[in-house]
């Protein structure tokens, strides 16, 4: 297996603040890769740089062999993205949103029509295809965005907290579909989520970042073993809540550390 | 080509689906047309100016175009806030094409708005001097629409939210409108006023319309089209450069 995403010494500053700090990692072709971290850790900033929306302060990125700064078009063809916050046109219908995306990505007409039908049926929105998106519920919009992100058959799919605010049914639905897609089409999946059990279940490998720095990378099992915890959530808290922020101990961290020392769960 | 078409189509669909906006944006031009047109008519005629309603109608048509065009361009800020801009910015097409497509769409909307004002003016008694010159008038209207939509897009590329909109309204759009000769003849004004009008691109749109619809040009129709074309080209180039630089 070879890597499809390569990140070397990636840094992004906003004025004095360093959002992403000397980050290096790679993602293998065909794997499901979870990119985890507390709020404000730099996940979305990293995704923005990977997807050509933001220029890095320094460092190198390769996506499918291309550089997002100088070869934007090649890079943009290689990925699909489901953003953290909505990115549909509410004034258009579900079908029109799909059509717009297909044309924008140069998907040829007959293929486009066929895929729109296929994907809208997969996310169970075919019956509602002519409804304006503004009448959709949050879950329906999310499903539509996922269908749209897949329309041009990307090699890499970025999912930035795709299941935030969704009910368990919809979440399950979405993940099982992403998993099937990964198996069947070999699409590389790069996801972020705050639901640790989702990352645990889905991801081949997990990376944890905090304060813009990479803290740990490996399989979920390795994490649990290393931190001597039984769930990824505990491992995550052990990694981000204690070990790293120990240098700026606040009351809450101190309490967690104390409890851990006595063998309790935090 | 397809990309430009789909972006154009999107602007048009959004416009035709919002009936309130279509009708709402006709209110202001209609008010200006009737209140000023009929209000100042008698004085203007006594002063030997002729029919003020005939004179002001091209000015008000230009105003309708100006406001709708700038607003269509600035509307991009909503796309930024509602997230749709991201979808277009990660697409594998050049940003110049994206900017051009949506500008063309916005300009078409502004042009239609200008046509609607023209029809309203005709309903209240405005008579274009010659039907043969109407296509030339339409060309001037479309150029004006394109120029100011690109201008709006350029502004929106540098704005994060709508906070600065009142600023643009009061310090850019209103002066553009009031200092363009849309409401009064430029002949015989203090030099300061004519100088300002001469550097205001809208003046040339108004003048071209007046030349074609009522026969009364200040700069000359050739100059009008020359200035409009050059300004439009410059604004599209500037707009697409600023648009290409957007980072989220």
UniProtKB/TrEMBL annotation, chain A:
GO CC term, one of those recorded: plasma membrane
Query: What membrane topology does this protein have?
Result: Peripheral membrane protein
Enumerate the Pfam families for this protein.
Answer: ABC_tran (PF00005)
PROSITE patterns found in the cross-reference section: ABC_TRANSPORTER_1 (PS00211), ABC_TRANSPORTER_2 (PS50893)
The signal peptide annotation in the UniProt record is none
Key words of the record? ATP-binding, Cell membrane, Membrane, Nucleotide-binding, Translocase, Transport
* Subcellular location, record wording: Cell membrane
The cross-references to InterPro entries, in alphabetical order and at most eight, read: AAA+_ATPase, ABC_transporter-like_ATP-bd, ABC_transporter-like_CS, DrrA, P-loop_NTPase
Please state the protein's primary subcellular location.
Answer: membrane
Look up the record and give one Gene Ontology term from the biological process aspect: daunorubicin transport
List the SMART domains: AAA (SM00382)
Q: Give start and end of each ABC transporter domain.
A: 5-236
What is the protein named? ABC transporter related protein
TrEMBL record, chain B:
One GO CC term on file? ATP-binding cassette (ABC) transporter complex
Alphabetically ordered keywords of this record: Cell membrane, Membrane, Transmembrane, Transmembrane helix, Transport
Protein's cellular compartments: Cell membrane; Membrane
Membrane topology reported for the UniProt record: Multi-pass membrane protein
Where is each ABC transmembrane type-2 domain found?
A: 20-246
Give me the segments passing through the membrane: 20-40, 52-74, 104-126, 132-155, 167-186, 218-238
Origin superkingdom: Bacteria
A single Gene Ontology MF term assigned here is: ABC-type transporter activity
Q: What is this protein called?
A: Transport permease protein
